[in-house]
Amino acid sequence: MGFKSFLVLLTTIAAVQGITCPNYFDPVGENCYYFSEDYADAKSWDNARSYCQSLDSDLAVFGIDCADTDRLIKHIIREDYTRMWVGASDEAQENFWVWIDGRPVDMKSKLWYYNEPDSGSSYDCALLEPSSSPHSRATLYDSSCSSSYYYVCEYGIHSA
């Protein structure tokens, strides 16, 4: 086997074994994610979204593939991340939550914390809060979009 054939073989094996993510993005399941980690990096929902878009990504969305959502949430809990903005909002129409890719948010999803969303017109953006409880899960809350939190960007996601 020649050197060029060997390189092609190695590239093929790497592609089959996993995905290649851009710098600063971590592979989780079938997708690539950027996790803000530094306190100075906490942003409002709009500013977090703008930053994600500058990285050819957008705030993370859930529900396209349940297995990927589960892997992402387990990763966030395992890495001990704190509250993070994700890509859902009801800013355009009160009480009609949509993901930034245009899909409606499943309001019966077990991801929503009990009685959430609950804060009326002043809380229009979705926040994921991991729990270190024995059940190790994460839940969605509605929050004021102007509050500063960490955020998670998903590579290749674009608004509808």
UniProtKB/TrEMBL annotation:
SMART domains: CLECT. Residues 28-154 form the C-type lectin domain. Keywords: Signal. Pfam families: Lectin_C (PF00059). This is C-type lectin domain-containing protein. It comes from Petrolisthes manimaculis. Residues 1-18 form the signal peptide. The keyword Signal applies.
